[in-house]
Amino acid sequence: MKALRPYKVLATACLTTALFLTGCTNEQDALSNKTEAKPTVANESQSKQTNTASTSSKVPEQLQKPLKIASINQFSIGTFSSQYISGVKKQVEEFGGEVQVYNADNDLSKMAAYVETAVNQQVDGILIDHGRADAIAPSVKKAVAAGIPVVAFDSDINIPGVTVIDQDDYSLSWNALRSMAQDLNGKGEIVYVWVGGFTPMERRNVMYEAFKKRYPSIKEIARFGTATQNTALDTQSQMEALLQKYPKKGDIDAVFAPWDEFAKGVTRAIQQAGRDEIKVYGIDLSDEDLQLMQEANSPWVSTAATDPADVGKLQVRFLYQKVAGEETPQIYSVQPHLVEKEDLPKSNVSMDEIGKYVEGWGKSDAGTSPWMENLSKDNKK
Predict the structure, then answer these.
(1) Would you call 151 exposed, middle or buried from its count of C-beta atoms within 10 A (0-12, 13-18, 19+)?
(2) Which of 70, 237, 263, 306 gets the highest tally of CB atoms within 10 A of its CB?
(3) Over the chain, what is the mean pLDDT?
(4) For the chain, which residues make up each domain, given as ranges?
């Protein structure tokens, strides 16, 4: 893999400055108003200090029986979600447990009802995927009151005792945007594909607003985006219409698509139109995304991402630690990575192989306890 560009090394410093210059403080204030408890915050580099896991290799008594886990998802759209769910299932099965997956089809009231169903069924643990606190927090509080451990992913829930993990959406967004700014040399016309109403998308938009102030010569000429069961296809149709509105080469320099379903749609529209001068910068990654990026005429040049399966496994490990009575952080951010097309080989690679080309990819050992290895061995017998 070639040497990293200087701007990648500086991304973290720029991100920190941008967060203080934008509305992130307001978001934190809003969260702190909901509870006076001070959350334990961690990331991968801090996991050893904040996660006080047992040093014993003996499987805890609470885990001597198979656990029944409920995995409740706001939606299951695209390959990122499917690979995340696959990671959840694989880790639960490795630990000898059973997992029931509930898909709310982007209906938050249904999602809240699923949480209450899990509470009534007296499951051993609940995993939450996305969802908004204003809709599901009351149901999650019932789970906590019933003594059921809860671990959430990409949610704005802020309830004492509930661990919330995320992909560090601020870093994801800034890494992708900084890559685009560097390639554009700080000047150009771009399209922004975005939709509100989802915690990670709202956080990514915070960085986009900071980006516009940091690079005033990069102009947004169009914005669109919807989240449906056919997001990629709908996005493709919308991008095709936009390309007809801006038919000349040079009208559009790049597209920022902070969700891989958006990135897939705009990429295919650009490919079919033969507008290879337009570059796409995305967020999230899956096997399908990788194949699309590696196509010879693909305009998708970079994406900031974490390994969705690895995130699912981490969420399960935190849940098992909670069941075992171990302390887990209230907030944990997974380290994201910038994956660039030019760093990948000409031959197709899968998500299992990408670690050869992106340092640190899929190697999180957070949320691990010595007894987990024995728990896995016991269930292989």
Answers:
(1) buried
(2) 263
(3) 87
(4) 40-167+308-337+355-378, 169-305
Confidence at 42, pLDDT banded by 50, 70, 90: low
At residue 332, the 3 state secondary structure works out as strand
Helix, strand, coil percentages for the chain (3-state, nearest 5):
45, 15, 35
Mean pLDDT for 178-192 is: 98
For residue 51, what are its two tokens? Answer: 């996660």
pLDDT at 5: 42
Asked if 123 contacts 70 with a C-beta cutoff of 8 angstroms, the reply is yes
Size of the chain in residues: 381
Q: Where are the alpha helices (DSSP H) in the chain?
A: 6-21, 24-34, 47-50, 78-94, 108-120, 133-145, 169-184, 199-214, 231-245, 260-273, 287-293, 308-323, 371-378
Q: Which residue has the tokens 């660039």?
A: 340
Residue 229: its pLDDT value, please? Answer: 86
The tokens for 207 are 């960085």
pLDDT at 138 over 60: yes
Cα distances (angstroms) measured from residue 60 to each of 147, 316, 351, 372: 17, 16, 33, 10
Structure tokens at 96: 């000898």
Query: In percent, how much of the chain has pLDDT > 70?
Result: 85
Structural domain 169-305, CATH architecture: 3-Layer(aba) Sandwich (3.40)
Q: How many degrees, rounded to 5, is the angle at CA 305 between CA 330 and CA 125?
A: 35
Greater confidence, 158 or 11? 158
Say what angle helices 308-323 and 78-94 make with each other, to 10 degrees: 40
Nearest to 143 by CA among 119, 175, 108: 119
- Band (22; pLDDT cuts 50, 70, 90): very low
Read off the pLDDT band of 381 (50, 70, 90).
low
| Fold classified for 40-167+308-337+355-378 | Rossmann fold (3.40.50)
The rounded distance, in Å, linking the Cα atoms of 220 and 191 is: 6
